[in-house]
Design brief:
Structural class: alpha+beta
Strand content: 15-25%
Strand order of the largest sheet: 1-2
Shape: elongated
Low-confidence stretches: 69-79
Oligomer: single chain
Number of helices: 3
Distance between the termini: 48 Å
Order of helices and strands: EHEHH
Radius of gyration: 18 Å
Length: 79
């Protein structure tokens, strides 16, 4: 998709390292517009017609869902 001249714009959410590669490849093709959301650990897309209160609730849940289990796992591993 990055290489094709038919793609005029690209959006990517993910790691900084992959974002750098995407930006470099896009510049070498047809210099398409690129939007990058990099380095976050919990990307969350909310559409225009979404229930914002529900989206906030789900984003909060997604962000903290594994916190307790990870802490327990670490305690088991280190004890």
């Amino acid at each position: 998709m990055i290489d094709t001249p038919h793609c005029l714009q690209l959006a990517f959410t993910g790691s900084t390292e992959t974002g750098k590669i995407i930006l470099e490849l896009a510049a070498k093709s047809n210099l398409k517009s690129v939007t990058l959301e990099l380095g976050g650990k919990s990307p969350f897309i909310v559409c225009e017609d979404a229930d914002v209160d529900k989206a906030v609730e789900l984003a909060h849940h997604a962000l903290f869902f594994n916190q307790v289990s990870l802490t327990i796992t670490q305690r088991i591993d280190f004890n």
